[in-house]
Amino acid sequence: MNPYAGRKYVIGGIIILTGIIFIIRLFLIQVVESSYKSTAESNARRVEIQYPARGLIYDRNGEILVYNEAAYDLMINPSITGSFDTVDFCRILDIPRQEVIERIGSARKYSLYKPSIFMRQISSMTYAIMQEKLYKFPGFFVQPRTLRKYPRDIAAHALGYVGEVNDRDIEEDPFYIMGDYIGVSGIEKSYENILRGEKGRKIYLVDVHNRIKGSYQGGRADRRTEVGRNVVSTLDADLQEYGESLMGKFAGSIVAIEPETGEVLALITAPAYRPSLLVGRVRSDNFRSLSEDTLKPWFNRALMAFYTPGSTFKTVNGLIGLQERVIHYGSEFYCDLGFHMSGYSVACHMHDSPLDFRGAVKNSCNAYFNHVYRNILNDTKFDRVSEAYMNWRRHVLSFGFGNTLDTDFVNELSGFVPEDIYYDNIYGKGHWNFLTVRSLSIGQGELGITPIQMANLSATIANRGYYYTPHVIKEIEGGEIDERFYERHYTSVDSAHFEAVADGMEGVVNEAGGTAWRARVSHFTICGKTGTAENPQGEDHSIFIAFAPKYEPKIAIAVYVEHGGFGNIWASPIAGLMAEKYLYDSISRPWMEEYVLKGERLDLE
Fold this sequence. Notes:
CATH topology of the domain at 306-552 and 561-598: Beta-lactamase
Number of helices: 21
Shape: elongated
Strand content: 15-25%
Number of strands: 20
CATH class of the domain at 306-552 and 561-598: Alpha Beta
Distance between the termini: 132 Å
């Protein structure tokens, strides 16, 4: 018997099996698998992303704050880039040959097959020349884009700006690819998904010279572009611009709110920057300059600066004292040029004494509110001072302090209202009392409050006990603003107590002895409260909160002027001018306006 007889069957089987495998693989490649066909076709196709125009941003009166202007990016697809006339190419773009080589190298490192930006935002003239000669430069094409434009160079921190996406943006949202633009701050970031629209796509057949020969598959693979939706902001452009002019000589912020809605009428932080500086090819240089500016124009003081509220906080402590029934409207305390107890003294200015609650608010009496706060922390309803303190803190938080207000602004900070454990860690549990934390009675000490929170306090008093979450968008095209902006937030203090505070704030501005006569306007009533925040780095900060008119108020406002001294020096006149500008669109006290605009202290008594 032949020992090799069976091997021919094995070898034959192997040959047959191999043939079957090849046949199946060829079938898959030629019939089932389309990637090879697509790869071959990609050499004859050009995929162009169609970028939508971003939605427009309007002010509350229908004036355009942000619109779009055409721009063009020169794109490169390294996989089909061949040899070309670099002399002509460099002449058109006005760049050296070495830079062309480096940019092509960078594009190849990013992706050999995916298009990327070779040069962004070329001029319209360059675009026209390049379009005529693109057939000479295989692998290059022009991508139409839009740039943001500003009819008025205002509200930079509120509006925000648009910048190129980074790796993190792309990783978090597959909508974006390298070279896309995204809202980086302000409204542009908060409402990015609404403003950005939906990208489209057009696929063209091109010849070996990269010239378009027609639409691929008759356009069936194209995708339609959807432009971004427009939004109407709550900002009043005239008031915003006026406020920025008033703060031109100062550092600080102004926040103005419509009490009955929570809509932010103006959000000013100074120093600021012009939004047009962050548009176009000069953006990178301007970005660097702004970042290096020691005046910190990037810093959004209205949302992120922590200040002690000073005497403006006496309104809160007074309301808590009334709510806890440790004082009543007629309660009187003597002021001997300050509060004096157990060797400790808190100074106060000269005024009538004793004062009742309204008079204490009007005259901003330090002694009165030290007595109020002592009564709050020594309340016999509580076994320990720490319990009374945490009850006080609960009331304070209900005014929107100590947490973010959950606005639609990005980068809003929470401020700081310490818990009892904070003092336990410093002094030991059970080893601190009213005298230890007495500075909180007049808005000093460890409190950290942001200007938008102080404006919200003013709105809360204007509404007699509740507030709406401050927000900067009024309407969205084809949509609605978030329901949370329609919700009332009530404080833990009964609404009945707020009228007494409003009466005292009326006296602050409009009566003899009041601490804010520079905010006074003859033809309507402004209710306000001055404050002076201690500043270990220099002169104290000037603070003022106000609302107007007293009944059915239309504007609530907070003004901080860093290193401005007493609240009536700068903050109160700025608030009075802002209120008059908004309510009457005119100024009846040009001398006061000139005083603020010059930024020079004068005796206006």
